[in-house]
Amino acid sequence: MNTILKFAVIAVFIFWNTNVSNAQTDWGISEEQKSETLKIPFDQANQEAGEAIFNTQCKMCHNEMSVVPVNTRLLPLSPNLGSQEIQKKNSDGELFYKITLGHAATGMPPFDRLSEDDRWKLVTYIRTFYPDYQPSTSTVAASPATEKFVGTIKGITLDFDTTNGTIKAKLQALDEMGNPANAKNVKVSFYVKRAFGDFLINTKKTDGQSIALEQYPLDLPADTNGYITVIATVDGTSITTSKEVKFGEKIHYKNPLDEPSLWGPRDNAPLWLKLTYILVVLGVWITIGWAAFQIFRIYNLRER
Ligand code: HEC
After folding, report:
1. Which CATH superfamily does the domain covering 28-144 fall into?
2. Which atom of ligand 1 is nearest to the CA of 24?
3. Which residue's C-alpha comes closest to atom 42 of ligand 1?
4. CB 276: neighbour CB atoms within 10 A?
5. Whose CA is nearest to atom 5 of ligand 1?
6. pLDDT tens for residues 152-177?
7. In the chain, where does the domain assigned CATH 1.10.760.10 lie?
């Protein structure tokens, strides 16, 4: 009897345990979905489009992509998607549906609001970190990586064209011989300064004239005077610059303390509150004065 009871307890325990771990590992993706393969060409255009989406939608949790796993920023841990372990264990379909459905149990949000095309672009970008990746037959082989700039970058300047809302970042660069050169294909990230950290707008590559162009997102609110501070940083370096510019939405921020209200400081308090206050204070002083006067009278009585 005793042994049966023990068995029952152990069985229940094991059952409960597997259930819990299933809830944590199960993304609810069917075998059919897993077997899906990349639907768009595995080419540079798609990889770069995927990277741009990744930088604005995923990087804050998943951090920098890299083949070597690095520490992730948030709990629950968001895995480094460049790691070979993740690349190996996931089919294209699995990546696609994990991005689509998310995983409520662990905090990976669903991204079904992105178009299907955009989600495949993300898969394309994620796969660029997998040297062993075999794109499905329907896809075009990756084009050779664009040549990298090999000189040194000395500085960066920012210019604005407020008529068409463009931000222009120009690099000053030297080639290997130390002569001024054009830095092509260098990544520049554009940020807008916000009260709590900098907000990434986009990452762009420089053209043949060392210039990276970005469209200013006109729906972004500016400060009370209509100014925003734009920051441009050469990716992977400490070369950065910032500049104020007056465009974008002006915030019409009303300070609630500027109007007469119960919580308004001093002059902004409502009249009835001021009157009540004055009356109460007067009342207190009159009472104190009256009491002092009575004490004085008692004192005088004793003298007589
Ligand atoms: C709020 C933070 C957060 C954001 C934003 C986010 N993720 Fe995740 N992601 C997670 C967490 C946490 C996990 C781990 C979930 C798990 O293992 O159950 C995860 C897991 C994943 C996985 C599965 C990895 C594996 O173990 O197989 C993929 C793929 C993924 N994320 C892609 C993306 C992409 C692409 C984006 C942007 C479109 C994105 N994530 C945005 C938090 C996030």
Report:
1. Cytochrome c-like domain (1.10.760.10)
2. 18
3. 108
4. 12
5. 58
6. 888 999 988 877 778 889 999 998 88
7. 28-144
pLDDT of residue 9: 55
Exposed, middle or buried by CB within 10 Å (0-12, 13-18, 19+), for 125? Answer: buried
Tokens of 171: 């690099």
Query: Would you state the structure tokens that stand for residue 119, as one six-digit string?
Result: 């989600």
User: If DSSP codes are grouped into helix, strand and coil, which group holds residue 49?
Assistant: helix
Closest CA to ligand 1's atom 32: 99
With a cut of 60, say whether residue 23 has pLDDT above it.
Answer: no
Q: Which protein residues are within 6 Å of ligand 1, measured from CB?
A: 57-58, 60-62, 74, 76, 78-79, 81, 86, 90, 95, 98-99, 103, 106-109, 111, 122
Q: List where CATH 2.60.40.10 sits in the chain.
A: 152-245
What is the distance in A from the centroid of ligand 1 to the CA of 116?
17
Tokens of 263: 């919580």
The identity of residue 134, as a single letter, is Q
Q: Which CATH architecture has domain 152-245?
A: Sandwich (2.60)
Ligand 1 centre distance from Cα of residue 218 (Å): 30
Q: How many angstroms separate the alpha carbon of residue 76 from the centre of ligand 1?
A: 10
pLDDT value, residue 76:
57
**Tens digits of per-residue pLDDT, 92-146?**
999 999 999 998 887 889 999 999 999 999 999 999 888 888 887 555 544 444 5
Choosing from 29, 36, 47, 62 the residue with most ligand 1 atoms within 8 A of its CB, the one to mutate for a pocket test is 62
DSSP output for 93-157:
HHHHHHHHH-BTTTTB---TTS-HHHHHHHHHHHHTT-TT----TTSPPPPPPPPPP-SEEEEEE
Q: List C-alpha distances in Å: 288 to 98, 274, 285, 296.
A: 75, 21, 5, 12
